[in-house]
């Protein structure tokens, strides 16, 4: 099952990912992404990939486990 990954040091807190997938991503009080789930069900994969691609600093990826 694919897995969400984040480069927390690269995240700039734009929150585009939250707009695209609020069930998977959030932004903490310091403006850094929080992963709300780790594993990605196949049915959610296209939507979560699009949300990850919306990150302007490419801090998010989805990797095959």
Detailed description of the structure:
The chain has about 60 residues and is an alpha+beta fold. About 20% of the residues lie in helices and about 20% in strands. The protein has a two-stranded antiparallel sheet with strand order 1-4. Strand 2 (about 25) and strand 3 (about 35) form a beta hairpin. The radius of gyration is 11 Å and the shape is globular. The model has no long low-confidence stretch (mean pLDDT about 95).
SS-derived structural category: alpha+beta
Q: How much beta, percentage-wise?
A: 15-25%
Q: Please describe the biggest sheet, giving its number of strands, its sense, and whether it closes into a barrel.
A: 2 strands, antiparallel
Distance between the termini: 6 Å
Number of helices: 2
The percent range for helix content is 10-25%
Low-confidence spans: none
Cross-sheet strand order for the largest sheet: 1-4
Shape: globular
Number of strands: 4
Task: Quickly describe the structure.
The protein is of the alpha+beta class and 65 residues long. The protein has two helices and four strands; from the N terminus they run βαββαβ.
């Amino acid at each position: 099952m694919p897995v969400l990954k984040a480069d927390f040091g690269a995240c700039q807190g734009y929150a585009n990912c939250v707009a695209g997938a609020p069930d998977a991503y959030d932004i903490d009080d310091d403006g850094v992404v929080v992963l709300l789930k780790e594993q990605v069900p196949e049915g959610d994969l296209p939507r979560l990939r699009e949300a990850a691609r919306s990150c302007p600093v490419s801090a998010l990826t989805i990797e095959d486990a």
